[in-house]
Amino acid sequence: MSVAVDSVARVLGLVKGPLQGVDLEVPGGQLTAVVGLPGSGKSTLVSCVGGLSRPAHGSVYIGQQQLHRLGDAALTRVRRDRIGYVFATSSLLPLSVAQNILIGHELAGRRPDRGWFDTVVRLLELRHLLKTRPETLTTLERQRVACARAFMNRPDVVLADEPTGELDQRDAGELLGFLRMWVRKLDQSILMVTSEPRVAAHADQVFLLRAGRIEGRIERPTVGTVSAALERS
Length: 233
What we know:
alpha/beta; 4-stranded antiparallel β-sheet; Rossmann fold; globular
């Protein structure tokens, strides 16, 4: 697979656990999906790309920065400043919605950009919930808060690991609509992994992951083309 030098995220020859050697790129301003059956290595891929674990072999880049060569302190800064995370379970803290969105700035001792904060909560329709605590929110609302937290630092790339895993079909469609809007309006780059063709079909491009290897790419995916690819895997 050819790799563009201006890619937001690049993975070259990645090997760790179930991954047998993965090459892919996440272009700027696109929603890229990796789809595979359970056990294919999707979460391991996200963990390596996000700097949460180190591959046994291979290279991971965010722009021109090589994550696998960074020390622990530098890697922590990259995770905080350049990468956002959205997981299947929102893992919000027992704080208000506003505090959860701003937790990264709080931990880093940085003053948030209030104008950007207002943009984030407006686009994710959270203003009326800012003083609310997570235990009173719906599952969809919690995931929207998790997205706001991920977007607040204006990351180079957002990693979404089964972001609709706990949502019904209607709520999943709504959350994916928010992610698509973020890509379209604000040029955000997102790498999403999923086992669901209906979810992957919202992406600009889809990579098929099977037994730890990338076995194909689908441009302008549909539910039908992704389902057919999974059936062949």
